[in-house]
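Methods, example record. To illustrate the input and output format used throughout this study, we show the complete record for FAD synthase. The sequence lines were provided to the predictor; the line carrying structure tokens was produced by it.
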Amino acid sequence: MITIAITHPIAPSIQENSPSCVLALGFFDGVHLGHQKIIRTAKKIAKDKGLKLAAMTFAQHPSSVIPKGPTITRFITPLSAKAKIFEQLGVDILYVVDFTKELAQVPHQQFVDQYLCGLNSKHVVAGFDYKYGFKGKGDMNQLPVDSKGRFGITTVSKFEKHEQKVSSTLLRTLISTGRVEEVPHYLGKSYEMAGKAEGKGKTCTFSFDPSYYMPVPGHYEVTVKSDLYQAKGMCEIKSIYSPGELTVTLFEDTLYQDFENATLQWNNFIADFEMDILHAQGDLRELEMSM
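The corresponding predicted structure is encoded as:
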């Protein structure tokens, strides 16, 4: 997979060198089961049409630029983690667009002309709630009008599990309330952070990208993994504003070397005497900020 960074206005050289593709659209934070359905739908179309499979995401969440609702600056999958998942799903080209105030001002028709047609899309796939262009005035009902027949369109319907819409918002809610054991139902796997494990014996330091979305403060059962090693342990989160480093105390195994490419898997919230048998069921972030 190749990754191409795009800033607005999109460079003509990028447009001229873009191969014909099926383009999957979305921010894709978490690349959860609903996102995977979009990618797999686009992949099948690309295979049937003999085209490249491309995905387009943004370097920043639009909420960090558009002053509306909560601002998202921490991610279930930071860009590097997201890119690895895309590659595993068979994406050939990942377009990463810098979401700026200037891009937010681009009208929906212009966005289609410059970005979707400009990247040589022959078919576009997105979720039913995808929006684009100034003030989100472009949506999946408007897209056939803006496309002017220049590319095919597939809208992926709402994906539900356990009578809940699978979404990044749902995953953030579960993580921010300590219910990490429920995440696999919607993500397809446990919540994980990529990073580096260092130390010897029962205690290790796990370093990671500080832009990861942190679970609510408390004690957790976790698994430290690499290609050659796997061990369960416990770690304590004292603040969601982590500098990108956690201490893990292993239950039985010992760490025998440092691992540059490791993963920290969040398994369960541990209720213990220090937490007064509390399982966090509410988002404690606002409480923490007020203390």
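Annotations derived from this record:
Residues 197 and 206 are 5 Å apart (CA to CA).
The longest strand covers residues 259-270.
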